[in-house]
Write a structure and sequence with these properties.
It is a single chain. The chain is built from 5 helices and 6 strands. It is of the alpha+beta class and 187 residues long. The strands form 2 sheets. Strands 1-2-3 form a 3-stranded mixed β-sheet, sandwiched between helices. Helix 4 packs across helix 5. The longest helix has 31 residues. The radius of gyration is 24 Å and the shape is globular.
Length: 187
Amino acid sequence: MSETLQATDDVEASSPAEAEADASAEPQSQSKTEDLLVQEGDIAGDYLERLLDLLDYDGDIDLDVESGRAIVSIDGGEDLSKLVGPRGNVLESLQELTRLAVQQETGVRSRLMLDIAQWRAGRRAELAELGRSTAEKVVASGERARLHPMTPFERKVVHDAVAAIAGVHSESEGEEPQRRVIIFPKP
């Protein structure tokens, strides 16, 4: 009989703890996600540091977590523009290789974003302006506009800029690598 009472006491004692654990499950899940993103950034940083050493390039690697995504930036070296390439083509390839290195170690597909010599930051500003000005022209003329083919990163920046303008909407059309943004007037 004493065993039964003790078991009942254990259940009662664990119930508030279980309730507390259930209540804290969401923040704990968010913490695990952030921990995974920090781990992705660390793996990517190590991978890119080895790459820079092999190439004998100078650069400072900065790791951050922003909007549910690991962000890795390389700044500071003269040769870094070679790692960006024309229209960011080399940067896109390095980002994919870095994502694969992270996935190989974690077993989880990475959405990591890589920026080199602040190229993406500058490109983001250019594209936001392109999206805004083109959307304003579409509102004024009432005719749709087709932009040149862009990478997924570039299209997202343009879509976000267009969404901030009343009277227009945007869609992507075509197949990679010729996928482009079309801006339409709203009826």
